[in-house]
# Entry
Amino acid sequence: MKIEIHLHFNGCCREAFEFYTKELGGTEVSLLTYGESPAGEHVPEDQQNWIVHGSMSLGDLVIAGADIMTDYERPAGFNILLQLENEEDSRTKFALLAEGGEVIMPLQSTFWSPSFGVVRDKFGIPWEVNCSPQ
# Structure
C-alpha cells in the first residue's frame, strides 16, 4: 500500500505546484486541465484551465492536487510536515511558505527542534517546518 496526499485548491493548483516545484525542490509529474479532460466541453470557459488532476513529487512524498469546482473548503485538520536538515534551510523554506500566507507559529527553537514553525501558505495549505536536531 502507498499513501499519497491529495490537496484541493480554488483555481490555483497550477500556480501552487509550480511554486512547490521551484521553491521546495519538487518534481512536477503531470498537470491535466478540465479542458483537456473528456468532460471539457461541459466545463465553464473560465475554468477550462483549472487542474482536474495534478501530481508531483516532493522528497519521498507524492502530492496530488486539483482545483475543486464545487464548494471549496480551505484545508483543515492536518499540516504537511517539511522535515529539513539544517536551520538555514528551515529559515529559507519557512520564509518562502510564509510570503503571502499566514504565520500560525513563528519559526523558533523548541525542546525537539532548533527550528520549528507553522504556516499556512498563500494557496491555503498548512505546513509545519521542522529542523532535525544536530
Observations:
- The radius of gyration is 16 Å.
- Residues 80-131 form a domain with the Signal recognition particle alu RNA binding heterodimer, srp9/1 fold (CATH 3.30.720.110).
